[in-house]
Design brief:
The complex is a heterodimer.
Chain A lengths: L3 E12 L2 E12 L3 E5 L6 H9 L6 E6 L2 E2 L10 E4 L11 H11 L4 H14 L15 H13 L5 E5 L7 H18 L2 E6 L2 H7 L2 E6 L2 E6 L1 H6 L4 H6 L4 E9 L2 E4 L2 E4 L9 E7 L4 E4 L7 E10 L4 E7 L4 E6 L8 E6 L5 E4 L5 E9 L2 E4 L2 E4 L10 E6 L4 E4 L7 E10 L4 E7 L4 E6 L8 E6 L5 E5 L1
Parallel strand pairs in A: 3-8, 3-9, 6-7, 7-8
Antiparallel strand pairs in A: 1-2, 1-4, 4-5, 9-10, 11-12, 11-14, 12-13, 14-20, 15-19, 16-17, 16-19, 17-18, 21-22, 21-24, 22-23, 24-30, 25-29, 26-27, 26-29, 27-28
Chain B lengths: L1 H26 L16 H8 L7 H32 L3 H16 L2 H14 L6 H26 L3 H8 L4 H29 L3 H6 L8 H10 L7 H32 L1
Classes of the chains: A alpha+beta, B mainly alpha.
């Protein structure tokens, strides 16, 4: 195994009391192209800025070549950054922008000249050295920003969403060029993006982050084919995420059918989540191969393939991608290869909360008083309480709820939505519902007495 | 017809605005002691002014020199202080930034006479003997907020990553300030300096209260005393004409440069 060039150990960071990174552990191998991928606000840029030295971790350490960097200021770190909005120096021309770092290091003039010309050639901007940087297009500025960083021959190149400001076509071209540059230079790249396709195209290793935590680390194919949880499955590519039940090793039930799969070790009769990619559901005309039937609901041409939504004979909606279209309304026979079924451990099966009995038939949870059968407990008892996903009710009117919050994350599970609700105090609740909500909707939260069950004293 | 009146209005306005200046300029070319008395064309007053040979009244030139020197020192120091303050304010978080910006604005609205008197009382209280130093200090005090005000927008326009990019490329904070931040803020600093210079140049109230009793005179206090003694020194007329012309030339040069710069970026 190649040696570790950067190691991140137990790094945490808070801003204004809000935790943005939580116990991050990660190492980056020499020469690797590693991508930090996640939605905005997941902490990826914060992590990159810590590696660059613009921020210090509250806890934990960042090691370069096995030595802790500690309070080493950015100008003493052998790393260079390509910033999101280029951050070229507007008062200097292209040549002086690129030569900036070398001049500070007192590199001899003729060597500066040679190196600047070489990187200009590398980024295909050879004839632009006398140009004013503000006269360049976005793509050209980005090339200069990259040239300005790599001319210093850093041990690691940090890239903070460098292509985010470019249009689609330009972005695709630059992706190929970046990959090519990485191959030629042999420098370690740490790349931050929220674009999953970019991450899959470019990376050797992808680190998927959400809410300040690492969700999964793996190669692009690992992450795509074997997501470890619903967040990763939903964030990377298109997917059918479904509730399932592991019957025994290599046998799983979902959409009210049973399928062979390749997963083992979950135990028998255990609730799980199942991911099937839309391109892994196949049409067949052979009744022998058919595992379940469905009716084509919509069919949309997407360029290379057709995207179809089908209703299964058991009442679930699935997305299928295929090169051939099937007419809307037609009955089709479908099957899924055992290899293509990804079974994931359920992160939770119900909301489990800690609360306090506050009165006869009342329990305080997350700062609100819920009705509950408290006959076996006394006022003041601290208790653990369970509310099933289906037991939490959401209301349009915030004021009518016992608590209020907003819809934080939505997952479609084939026949219902699984919502993550963030309460006004920042706590989370998970809800199964067939109602349609949008991300960011403000909701009132309530639950009926019959759905709230006290599990026992703390 | 409507157009004619619109034109007329503008011209009348301009005549009223510039008449006093033109009046002074015309009468700077005659030797009469009393303003408004034409005694035939002469450049004698100009000669007197330039040779300093002013009928036994040479403190006028001293006052001009004081004025320029004080304005230069005060503007330079205010530019330095104001720029550093602006950078600090820009990097504060929302609440305190608002508060400090508000506090920065108050001295600018505050009447000069109050600034003057309060500075006077402060210097007395601190037992600082008043003279050249106190005048310079006072001028720095009322100039600095203007510099802050003209540098802040430049900071806001600037790409926030530029400073970090310099650090990233191996610049120490000091070098990054000098080689990247200052060049970006130069425009705001220059206008802050010019603003401070002119504010200091024509200040009367603050200077009057902080100059003490050692007989220090700037142009404005000189004219004030002179007028009270009865009749203005005739050489003031060519002096004012010259000051006006210098300012005019500077303004034209500045505007032409600005336009050329704008054209250059437009072409791009």
């Amino acid at each position: 195994m190649a040696e570790k060039i950067i190691e991140i150990q137990h790094v945490s960071k808070s801003f204004d009391g809000k935790r943005v990174l939580e116990d991050i552990n990660l190492y980056i191998k020499k020469g690797e192209f590693l991508t930090l991928l996640g939605p905005s606000g997941c902490g990826k840029t914060t992590l990159l800025r810590m590696i660059a030295g613009f921020l210090a971790p509250d806890e934990g350490a960042i090691l370069l070549d096995g030595k802790e960097m500690g309070d080493l200021p950015p100008h003493q770190r052998p790393l260079n950054t390509v910033f999101q909005r280029y951050a070229l120096f507007p008062h200097l021309d292209v040549y002086d922008n690129i030569a900036f770092g070398l001049k500070l290091k007192k590199v001899p003039v003729d060597e500066i000249d040679r190196r600047v010309r070489r990187v200009l050639k590398l980024v295909a901007m050879s004839d632009y050295e006398d140009r004013d940087v503000e006269t360049l297009s976005g793509g050209q500025q980005q090339r200069i920003a990259i040239a300005r960083a790599i001319v210093n021959q850093p041990k690691v190149l940090l890239l903070d969403e460098p292509l985010a400001a470019l249009d689609l076509k330009m972005r695709k071209d630059m992706q190929i060029e970046l990959k090519e540059m990485h191959r030629k230079l042999g420098i370690t790249f740490i790349y931050v993006t929220h674009d999953q396709e970019e991450a899959l195209t470019l990376s050797d290793t992808i680190v998927v982050m959400n809410e300040g935590r690492i969700q999964q680390i793996g190669t692009p194919t690992d992450i795509y084919n074997e997501p470890v949880n619903c967040f990763v499955a939903d964030f990377i590519g298109e997917s059918n995420i479904l509730k399932g039940r592991m019957i025994r090793d290599r046998r799983v039930a979902f959409i009210k059918h049973q399928f062979d799969c390749v997963d083992e070790g979950f135990g028998e009769d255990v609730p799980v989540d199942v991911v099937v990619r839309p391109e892994d559901i196949y049409f067949t005309t052979d009744p022998q191969k058919c595992q379940f039937k469905a009716k084509v609901n919509t069919c949309t041409f997407k360029g290379v393939h057709y995207e179809m939504w089908v209703d299964t004979d058991t009442g679930y909606e699935l997305m299928i991608q295929d090169y051939d279209p099937y007419p809307v309304g037609s009955e089709v026979m479908l099957y899924i290869d055992p290899d293509d079924i990804q079974v994931m451990k359920k992160e939770r099966t119900a909301n489990v909360l800690e609360g306090k009995v506050t009165g006869d038939g009342k329990v305080e949870l997350l700062g609100g008083e819920f009705p509950c059968d408290t006959s076996a407990y006394e006022v003041g008892d601290e208790v653990r309480v369970e509310i099933p996903f289906g037991g939490v009710e959401l209301l349009d009117n915030r004021e009518e709820g016992i608590l209020s919050g907003e819809v934080h994350f939505i997952l479609y599970m084939g026949d219902h939505y699984h919502l993550t609700i963030k309460t006004d105090d920042g706590d989370f609740l998970w809800v199964d519902t067939t109602d349609i909500w949008d991300k960011g909707d403000l909701v009132g939260i309530t639950a009926a007495e019959k759905d709230i069950r006290i599990l026992g004293r703390l | 017809m409507k157009r004619f009146f619109a034109q007329l209005y503008i011209w009348v306005l301009l005549v009223i605005l510039y008449a006093p200046l033109v009046f002074i300029a015309i009468f700077s070319f005659t030797e009469s002691k009393v303003l408004g008395n034409w005694k035939g064309f002469s450049t004698r007053l100009y000669q007197n002014l330039l040779t300093g040979d002013m009928q036994g009244n040479s403190s006028l030139l001293q006052a001009v020199e004081n004025t320029l020197l004080i304005a230069l020192i005060a503007a330079a120091l205010a530019t330095l202080l104001g720029t550093v303050a602006a950078i600090g304010i820009h990097n504060m978080n929302g609440r305190s930034r608002q508060a400090i910006t508000f506090l920065n604005n108050i001295p600018m609205i505050n009447p000069d006479i109050i600034t003057g008197v309060s500075l006077f009382l402060l210097f007395v209280f601190l037992h600082i003997s008043q003279g050249y130093t106190t005048v310079v200090l006072a001028h720095i005090t009322f100039c600095t907020p203007y510099v802050v005000l003209s540098v802040l927008p430049k900071l806001r326009q600037m790409n926030p990553n530029i400073y970090e990019a310099a650090l990233d490329l191996g610049a120490t904070p000091g070098v990054a300030l000098r080689k990247v931040l200052i060049p970006q803020l130069r425009g705001g600093m220059v206008s802050g300096f010019i603003l401070s210079f002119t504010m200091s140049l024509d200040d009367f109230a603050v200077t009057f209260f902080t100059r003490g009793t050692i007989g220090l005179d700037t142009l404005s206090t000189y004219i004030y005393t002179d007028a009270r003694k009865g009749g203005l020194t005739p050489e003031l007329r060519p002096l004012m004409t010259l000051i006006f012309l210098i300012i005019l030339v500077l303004l034209v040069v500045f505007n032409v440069r600005q336009q050329r710069l704008a054209k250059k970026t437009q072409r791009v």
